[in-house]
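Researcher: Quick test of sequence recovery. Tokens follow.
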């Protein structure tokens, strides 16, 4: 179920109209199911549901986990947040709501984000080769602030043709759905900073060694 669905009720008519206007637009069908795994920094991999249950993965006041599709490449500045919108059956397209993602829930015996028939996200202006899509897994705190805990590999728009359709909610069970199953844990800010510092020191040391006489002699051999 989409996070905070009740916040769309007041705008249902307007959003539904927007959804109809997207009827002929390309729509990416995607979901994350219970088969997904997350690789940790020690090289081991765990099932995504077990990963969510590990200490420190959820925010202290977490209200649940969700998945969202980030867009990168093209004219998007590095670090800028761009996400695919999500179609909400019965309401229409939640324009600008892609940052909130789709909650991990149990649905008719299936567990995941968008199971079993997939989420429907209009591709919009990102339907060209220079753009790629990355599924992020994250959790929310009580104020609905998102924290990314794992991410998948980037998939170029051109590689997702089998999962891109030109219709909303038309017998979605018959559509092929992009279902990434491999994710990598996102380092904590402190760990990432240490990695960056360590990498910088190694690069500096290599540059210094490259200019050292012994290094030059060795290179000349």
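Model:
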């Amino acid at each position: 179920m989409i996070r905070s669905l009740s916040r769309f009720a007041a705008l249902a008519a307007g959003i539904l109209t927007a959804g109809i206007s997207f009827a002929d637009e390309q729509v990416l069908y995607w979901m994350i199911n219970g088969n997904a795994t997350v690789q940790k920094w020690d090289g081991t991999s765990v099932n995504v549901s077990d990963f969510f249950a590990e200490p420190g993965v959820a925010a202290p006041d977490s209200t649940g986990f969700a998945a969202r599709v980030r867009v990168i490449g093209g004219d998007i500045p590095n670090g800028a947040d761009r996400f695919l919108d999500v179609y909400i059956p019965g309401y229409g397209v939640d324009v600008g709501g892609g940052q909130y993602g789709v909650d991990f829930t149990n649905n008719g015996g299936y567990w995941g984000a968008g199971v079993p028939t997939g989420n429907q996200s209009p591709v919009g202006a990102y339907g060209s080769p220079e753009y790629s899509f990355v599924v992020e897994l994250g959790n929310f705190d009580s104020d609905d602030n998102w924290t990314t805990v794992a991410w998948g590999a980037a998939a170029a728009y051109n590689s997702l043709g089998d999962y891109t359709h030109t219709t909303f909610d038309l017998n979605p069970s018959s559509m092929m759905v992009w279902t990434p199953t491999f994710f990598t844990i996102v380092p904590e800010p402190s760990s990432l900073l240490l990695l960056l510092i360590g990498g910088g020191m190694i690069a500096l040391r290599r540059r210094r060694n490259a200019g050292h006489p012994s290094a030059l002699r060795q290179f000349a051999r």
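The helical segments are 12-21, 48-53, 189-210, 213-220.
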